[in-house]
Amino acid sequence: MAVTEKELQEILDQYPSKVQKNRTKHIFIKDGAESAQVIEANTRTIPGIITNRGCAYAGCKGVVLGPLKDMVHITHGPIGCGYYSWGTRRNKAKSDDPTQNFLNYCVSTDMQESDIVFGGEKKLAKVIDEVIDIFHPKAVTVSATCPVGLIGDDISAVARAAESRHGVPILAFSCEGYKGVSQSAGHHIANNILMERVIGASETEKASGKYPINILGEYNIGGDSWEVERVLEEIGYTVVSVMTGDGSYEELKNAHTAELNLVQCHRSINYIAEMLETKYGTPWLKVNFIGIAGMSESLRNMALYFGDEALIAKTEEVIAREVARIEPLMEQYKKICDGKTAFCFVGGSRGHHYQGLFAEIGIETVLAGYEFAHRDDYEGRQVIPTIKTDADSKNIPQMQVSADERRFRLKVSPEKMEELKQKIPLSYYAGMTVTMKDGSIIVDDLNHFETEEFIKILKPDIFASGIKDKYVIQKMGIPAKQLHSYDYSGPYAGFNGAVNFARDVSMGFASPTWNFIVPPWQDEPLLTGTVTEEGVA
Ligand code: CFM
Asked: Rounded to the nearest whole angstrom, what is the distance from the C-alpha of residue 348 to the centroid of ligand 1?
């Protein structure tokens, strides 16, 4: 079943005309016959619409910085911002030195009304002093929340002064929540400063093992990167750093020594990937470690990049063994899932990444989208030069890097690079649209109204969603699989992750809970009205 143009128009017609004009640009039905289907993305949500997006602070402190375990992350702001970004994302970490893993802590300056009136700089300086005194961290981050920008606290000056007092790097991030239209702005702000202050900050010139790589845009939600690293290390790769799942300040400093950068989540980290290429000559490879086919293809592409026969053979050996081990486990779940349909709406990359895994267990994705991705995540990176920067994006500094005189080294010759680009997604991402079936719905910044409307038409068997939308979906009698924090489960990446995912999705279908919920369309008329003497009410 698909949504027709007429049905789509009927949904949009329910909006006031200005809103309708706006939302029309964010939704389309995939049609492969059209050469380029343009989508509007990374623009402001209309005030009043219930979006699932987060803020710039969430993208900076919560997403990119938060997982770095040996740094203390200070939130400068009222307590709510720190509290709600504390532990909810399930970016796991373990450390050989437990005194240098601060992920369980939530450190906030707890701004009060008087700080808003008289300024919060002194309080911030005091909190930094206390943090250094109590925890002795390798480095500290300070993330600004909305009121900090509004009252004009100069967090960079406070950080600089504290840095010279203590001799410990204190990084200040002006990631006030309102800095952009979503958390995407915060990713960019975090990327810039990590590049400027952390990456390449060590004296190490050469990685210590064979095939050194960085894994970018992998945040170890529910243990994802541990499962990926298990396989990579067995094949023979040396993981120099993970950005930033189970990552650390110490590892990040050596990231310039890698021979290849892998990019899992393109949206949150493509800025660093590009800057690493310009500064050190290291290309990046778009990977997708979600799903058996995605994982296997990514491993094969990595081996092709290095081009070493022994590595290629070992890659095939590991893939064959892992697939043979997990396929029988997947069988029982495939029987439950086969023939079902899904909506897959997640932040800025998973809306795409999980479609392959859904397909492997027999589930077709009929609607997909991102909360806050940019046009390139839908249409492919070739559209980047045509994206017009609006006032909201201009808020974020565009960092300029150039080749590092001492360290720049082309890892692959330009000829070899061109040859590889024909075969593997080297320094390129093709986006979501191209992989989706004709007739499926692609929607940017899906809201609660549209969620309900599309569910009523397509009645999906499962909805991959987030914490904000999942209750609405469940109340409509549809199982929701939370694909941000995975609820209480995971890992879902790699080979073992595929089995966990198939199991959890099957549990969703098998649960008798859904028999107790009557979806609204079964006992409510879709339109109600009465006729009175004055007319129709
Ligand atoms: Fe990248 Fe992410 Fe995502 Fe993201 Fe996120 Fe996340 Fe996400 Mo939630 S970094 S864009 S800002 S893959 S927290 S680990 S699940 S919205 S799709």
From this structure: 6
DSSP code at position 513 = G
Residues 6+ apart with CB under 8 A from 280: 200, 256, 404, 407, 408, 409
CATH architecture entry for 212-336+380-423: 3-Layer(aba) Sandwich (3.40)
pTM of the model: 0.95
Q: Nearest-CA neighbor of 173 among 198, 190, 154, 194? A: 190
- Phi/psi at 27 (nearest 5 deg)? -135, 135
> Number of C-alpha atoms within 13 angstroms, CB side, residue 359?
15
Q: pLDDT confidence of 530, banded at 50, 70, 90? A: confident
> Which one is the CATH code of 56-197: 3.30.230.30, 3.40.50.1980, 3.50.50.60, 3.30.559.10?
3.40.50.1980
> Which ligand 1 atom sits closest to the C-alpha of 221?
14
Q: Among all residues, which ones are annotated catalytic?
A: 55, 58, 89, 187
* Closest Cα to atom 8 of ligand 1: 484
DSSP state for residue 354 in the 8-state scheme: H
CB 480 within 8 A of CB 463: yes
Q: Return the domain boundaries, the chain.
A: 56-197, 212-336+380-423
Q: Which amino acid is at 282?
A: T
| Whether residue 24 has pLDDT greater than 90 | yes
Cα–Cα dist 484/191, whole Å: 21
The DSSP code for 99 is: G
Number of continuous H segments (helices) and E segments (strands) in the chain:
22, 16
**Pocket residues: Cβ below 6 A from ligand 1:** 59, 63, 89, 183, 217, 219, 221, 265, 267-268, 346-350, 484
Do the domains at 56-197 and 212-336+380-423 have one common CATH topology?
A: yes
Please report the pLDDT score of residue 537 as a whole number: 53
In tens, the pLDDT along 188-221 reads 999 999 999 999 999 999 999 999 999 999 999 9
For atom 10 of ligand 1, the residue with the nearest CA is 348
Nearest CA to ligand 1 atom 9: 268
Q: Give ∠ CA 331-334-335 in degrees, rounded to 5.
A: 90
| HSE-CB of 238 using CA atoms within 13 angstroms | 14
